[in-house]
Records
---
Amino acid sequence: MEGAVEPAAALRQLHEQHGAALLGFAARLTHNPDLARDVVQDVLLRAWRHPEIVASDERAARAWLFTVTRNLVIDRWRSAAHRHETATDVSTLADRTPTGEDATSAVLDRWLIADALRGLSPQHREVVVAASYEGRPLAEIARTLGVPEGTVKSRLHYGLRSLRLLLQEKGVTAP
């Protein structure tokens, strides 16, 4: 998308290049073709509002489009409006359990956190996973890595801080 291209033409080109893939991606995430079309429309509207994305190189624009698609799907799953906007057949109400919705939210949360963990340096990720997810004590982590315990504490501190920033960039806010 090099050169001075009119925003509407650039957006049309972006849709032609990535629209079908975005729709397929959104459909796999939502399991609802109507919702998937709405999400893709919202993504393209956001791209139109951010001409720097439309004008960026194709790879960066594609990555941005897919990230925004994923984040919008996650936001819709978490929103109260999602729970109230879906049409419900009265006969299926007895079959619904909160654990199904909780499980979906938990899966999306794990996916979001795993994606953010990949953004950490290997040293920070290793310590954060060992301490926060495996529940290992700092002294054990230090012995395993062959570094002083103070280094593990420092890596954990800066790793968690970086993880929080990465999650904030993805739209996650603290409760």
Note: The chain has nine helices and no strands.
---
Amino acid sequence: MAKREGRERWNHLNALPIKQIHDRWISQYAGHAINIIDRLKSDLQG
């Protein structure tokens, strides 16, 4: 959605579809990646 005010154009983003994509496709992999990074951090510190 865009709104014009004189020479300016204001664009607005509906973030809900992006969040739905994240929740459905990305979140399961993000949790796994966080676990791997946590384990790596523990191994490097210990």
Note: The beta strands are 2-5, 8-11.
